[in-house]
Automatic annotation (TrEMBL):
Classification via InterPro entries: 6-hairpin_glycosidase_sf, 6hp_glycosidase-like_sf, Glycoside_hydrolase_63, MGH1-like_GH
Superkingdom: Bacteria
Lineage: Bacteria, Bacillati, Bacillota, Bacilli, Bacillales
Family the entry assigns: Belongs to the glycosyl hydrolase 63 family.
Keywords, comma-separated and alphabetical: Glycosidase, Hydrolase
Family annotation (Pfam families): MGH1-like_GH
Protein name: Mannosylglycerate hydrolase MGH1-like glycoside hydrolase domain-containing protein
Keyword flag Hydrolase: yes
Domain Mannosylglycerate hydrolase MGH1-like glycoside hydrolase as annotated: residue spans: 227-533
Taxonomic source organism: Paenibacillus profundus
Length: 557
């Protein structure tokens, strides 16, 4: 359920089909004596109560009680559901006090089952579908007797079942959420609101296996970004790895299950679609290495071997299919490939040789070498190291100029003039390979040109291209923040890393768990509730209490 931004209507939504599919399926209205009634909302993590504004004892209450079931209880009021329908959507009687709704546009069906009360259905037929659909659920007789009904979603056929009563369903969901919340890292008291919000967002965005989703998946959001992307899910997997390793590994397994024969991971996946039009930066070996540090469960040889084989194929994709000649570095074919969609290094066109991509690949190659040695594949270990050395040489030869890293516009083999994007500082992640003076210059540049009140701007605030709400042209992003904090820690810049971590944790008290943030005011921007933002907060909260051990040399060299 959501409040529609433009109309302020209360909407029942369905997320099948991903973020390109319309999600609004019903408009909800509170009714009293046949008329629409003014209402207020009382919302908890587990239920929504729509309260009659002039009589607080009268309300409608809804709870998502199972993976595909909504329980609804009405006390003293009625609830009208008006379908937001397309041409072929249709409602038909199914059984006593049951109606089946076929949503052709969503390729699902809904069963409305009235357990107590009575319904008024208005669904005039128009040749190939209902002209409109309106269901009003009412209490029986004396309104105080209440009304209870269930809405159930399914793909093909409805299976008869016994429904528990509303209060039992609500209490069960509340216990499930409380169990999830208890697993989340304890935080200092001032950050408890952020902890609870992050816990709720991550809990509520887990969807069950269906269609292309071969396991439980944590969507990025249930507002607009209801897919999983192949780097977003890495941060969610790292967060989950502490207390729910099976669910953590599932976030990687979903992409491995659909890995193309070329080795590329899908850009995004939902229940209906997977897209290979773009991809995402190769951070997956790093994410898995961090998961292993957090939980020894991931050190099982079978898991390591399976991850190694998939990561090897994914890495070879970049080496074999993303560079035209061996004397050049792999390229991004679109800003979206980098995850930094509109960053200034992409303003001249594509493809682009970018230092962050080279750095991610070098680190991935180094980790693969370590994994190969662990699996007693010594020849492969040496081959990965040789490839890493080769890419490192090309990085320094082609993209290091005048004491700084640059990007190249590949078709003209020229350096891109825009040099104020934070993405150009990402080689800090391979500080273990860089000369110490190069690492120091990167760190100084971060502090002098990018550090703002709440963290690192994605475009320097000195840049003419900086935009207050510019997506990757200024706003702070959680994943990038975490990548830099991790790199700073592993290069010995612990004070700077802790300062950025504190700033980000403070930021969530101002802008909640938004997709990105204004670097100076802290205002949350774009989508207000994002899971990778939540996961980064929870990881930083954990690390502020229990700092990560220095495993850097063991993993990467």
């Amino acid at each position: 359920m959501s409040i529609e931004r433009d109309t302020n209507r209360l909407i029942l939504r369905d997320l099948h089909g991903g973020d390109e599919a319309p999600s609004s399926i019903f408009v909800l209205e509170l009714m009293k004596d046949g008329q629409a009634a003014a209402y207020d909302l009382d919302v908890t993590e587990t239920r929504l109560r729509i309260i009659h504004r002039h009589n607080q004892s009268e309300y409608a209450e809804l709870c998502i009680s199972d993976e595909d079931i909504i329980h609804c209880r009405l006390v003293g009021v009625s609830l009208k559901l008006t379908a937001v329908k397309t041409r072929y959507d249709s409602l038909m009687p199914y059984g006593p006090k049951q109606w089946e709704y076929h949503l052709y546009s969503k390729e699902i069906k809904l069963m409305f089952t009235l357990l107590q009360g009575h319904a008024c259905i208005q669904a005039p037929w128009k040749m190939v579908g209902n002209d409109s659909i309106e269901l009003i659920m009412n209490p029986d007789g004396d309104q105080d007797e209440g009304c209870v009904f269930v809405i159930e979603s399914y793909k093909t056929v409805w299976r008869k079942k016994e429904y528990e009563d509303y209060e039992q369903a609500r209490e069960r969901v509340e216990r499930h959420y409380e169990q999830w919340l208890r697993q989340m890292q304890a935080v200092p008291e001032r950050y408890e609101p952020s902890r609870r919000l992050a816990a709720y967002i991550t809990w509520s965005c887990v969807v069950h296996p269906e269609g292309q989703l071969k396991d439980y998946a944590m969507y990025m959001s249930k507002n607009w970004m209801f897919n999983i992307w192949s780097w977003d899910n890495c941060f969610n997997a790292m967060m989950l790895s502490d207390h729910d390793p099976q669910l953590a590994l599932a976030q990687l397994d979903i992409f491995m299950a659909h890995q193309d024969e070329s080795g590329i991971y899908a850009d995004f996946i939902n229940d209906k679609f997977l897209s290979f039009n773009c991809c995402k930066p190769p951070i997956h070996a790093w994410a898995f290495a961090r998961m292993r540090e957090r939980n020894a469960w991931f050190n099982e040889r079978e898991i390591v071997a399976r991850m190694y084989d998939s990561l090897a194929r994914a890495t070879n994709y970049w080496l074999d299919h993303r560079r035209s000649v061996a004397s050049r570095l792999p390229v991004y074919n679109h800003g979206n490939d980098s995850g930094w969609d509109n960053a200034s290094i992409f303003h001249d066109g594509i493809p682009v040789e970018a230092p962050d991509l080279a750095a991610h690949l070098i680190r991935q190659l180094d980790i693969l070498s370590s994994m190969a040695a662990e699996l007693q594949r010594e020849d492969e270990a040496k081959a990965w190291t040789d490839k890493a050395d080769e890419l490192y040489g090309l990085l320094m030869e082609r993209l290091y100029r005048g004491g700084r890293f640059v990007a190249r516009y590949t078709p003209e083999d020229r350096i891109i003039a825009h040099q104020d994007s934070l993405i150009l500082y990402m080689p800090l992640i391979i500080g273990y390979r860089l000369p110490s003076e190069v690492t120091a210059a990167l760190v100084n540049g971060l502090a002098e040109r990018f550090e703002a009140r709440y963290g690192l701007c994605t475009e320097s605030y000195h840049s003419p291209l900086y935009r207050d709400n510019g997506y990757w042209l200024g706003p702070i992003w959680a994943p990038v923040t975490y990548l830099f904090i991790d790199a700073l820690r592993h290069n010995g810049y612990n004070e700077f890393a802790s300062r950025l971590a504190d700033k980000f944790m403070d930021l969530t008290l101002v802008g909640d768990m938004a997709e990105n943030f204004d670097p100076f005011s802290g205002q949350g921007l774009v989508d207000p509730a994002f899971t990778w933002t939540s996961s980064v907060f929870l990881m930083l909260a954990r690390e502020s209490i229990q700092p990560p051990e220095e495993h850097h040399e063991k993993i990467f060299r």
